[in-house]
Amino acid sequence: MRERSFILDRRDWVYLFGLLAPLTVYNLLLKAVRIASLPDEHGFLGSLALIRSDLLFNLGYALLWMGLFAVARRGFPRWMVLVLFHASAATVALITTAYHRFFLVTGSALDADTVLFFLSSPKEVGAVALSEVTLPLVIVVIISLAYAVFGPLTLVHLVFHGRTATAPGGGTVESPWLTFSGMALLAYALVSLSLLPGGGPAGASETFARDAFVNVALSEVKGSTAPLPPVNARKIRDGLPTKARLEPTAQAKQRNVVLIHLESTRARSVTPYNRDIRTTPFLNELSKKSLFAERAYTVVPHTTNALVAATCGIDPPDRSGTSSVGDDIPARCLPELLNEQGYKSVYFTSSVQTFERRPEVVKQMGYKEFYPVETMDTDGFQKANYFGYEDDVMLEPSRKWLKKNGDKPFIATYETITPHHQYLAPDKRYGRKQFAEDAVLNRYQNTVRYVDFFVKNLIEQYKEMRLYGSTIFVIYGDHGEAFGEHGRYQHDNVVWEEGLRIPMMIVDPSHPAQRIGKPVNQLDILPTVVDLLGYRISGGKYPGYSIFDLPKDRTLKFSCWYEKKCLASLKGASKYIYHFGDRSEELYDLSKDPLEQNNLAGEAPPEEFRERREELLRWYARVNAIYPP
């Protein structure tokens, strides 16, 4: 006969908490590690506020299963509850582990959209995910899953000395359905309370304050419902430069155009923008004889989106619309415009072609020839990261193409990959130097140093082939890169200066050097190149400006790559950041605080925030109307 205790018999208690107790400890321990990783100190009360959601969810989760165990005592219902119990516990543990690793790598909270993105794009992001899978992580997952399946029954067997090696169950509970209903209601109340805003300390977002599993589940229900201002989508699309064309002026002269796309290269890691770091001596010398943008920005900090902005001159989409640019780019891009003027066009990349439909995107931009790393001889070249090889692998294919096609005007793009995460920093050709004490940051700085050699080698190639004097070189970063300056890493959700501010310079041997002090962004590349070539645009209007004709007052607008995560605007030196309510708004004076350490939000009148927030949301709604999800 089984020994009875309150609600459940003793074997049930051992079985139930043999799994719930370690699961709860595991969840809370990971949350404590995440809290400790935050850049600010929060103290005991602050940490308690940040862990409140986790405590409530785990308590509610435990009460739910207590009620189910009480009502399902025998037969098929009992076995059904047992299967669901183990499966749900394993799911919670896996999602919590994935959330934890994602946060440590990116500084962002994992949500349902991101989980679905990874699951729906295994070929594209599989290598990215695998790069963060470590042996200790694999061991932890295997042990956790093994214990979730076999642990509770083994524990019952040990505690009761093997008297009955079957699953717990049996006995009776008076009014089991009443007991279950009460526990289910209490569990619902506790889990509901875990969904409420955390009220955590400043600097911690609402998504961070929530329990990991709750945040992923809630984001699927709530995350995509934030309202945007209504816009006339048809009118917006009708106003796009889909029928634009070039018309020569009296100054028109056919010269080659070369776009050098510097992957993950932030301004503060490039010598012309930071005299304290000697990563790029060649770019530093080149900047002195270039049209040098002192304050240049990306629009969306992600590669494909930067390509759309720089090459096609229109605001790029966020993540939801990125895939669509492989089917249609609602503008005539620079290669397409120049093809009509008799130009040849070619695109080289040291990256694999499988990411975000690069062949289709390149074709939509108007390039006639495309050479990804799969077409190149990689023998003797080092891997740069999970996406490709060191950038010098493009030099020989470039030489062959130029030898065959360099007698006529052309537009060529070189998309580098070396500075991209995971920053392997190839060292056989140029060695490495010490730029930072942090090992990861130092590897990154060495990848930036590497692209300096690549740019030098490429320009030397053009000089050797007597093409330099007749070529306009546009050298720009696609986005920046973060290393925890504001609690985030890499670039997709980094809307501070380390993620948005990029190097940009235009080397035109026929034009005197000039420093551009006003803020510019990638949208200005297309109209500036058209201006330098002596053409004018008719049949459509692009949102950017030639750097020779920048407006006096201009607001630059930015978006994170992830949907509805963050927006920002720049007016002069005033930088405003909006997080869609996930955390407090931010305001910085970049003229006094270029590293964005002093948030002036408390000093600004509410109406200023409202105006800037509404302006950003209208812009974001207009951009969303351009691209199908």
UniProtKB/TrEMBL annotation:
Gene3D superfamilies in the record, alphabetically?
A: 3.30.1120.10, Alkaline Phosphatase, subunit A
Q: How does it sit in the membrane?
A: Multi-pass membrane protein
Question: Which keywords accompany this UniProt record?
Answer: Cell membrane, Membrane, Transmembrane, Transmembrane helix
Q: Which residues form a coiled coil?
A: none
- Spans through the membrane: 12-29, 49-72, 79-96, 133-157, 177-196
Which cellular component appears as one GO term in the record?
A: plasma membrane
Domain Sulfatase N-terminal: residue ranges: 255-535
Record's Pfam families?
Sulfatase
Keyword Transmembrane attributed: yes
> What is this protein called in UniProt?
Sulfatase N-terminal domain-containing protein
Q: Which organism is it from?
A: Rubrobacter xylanophilus
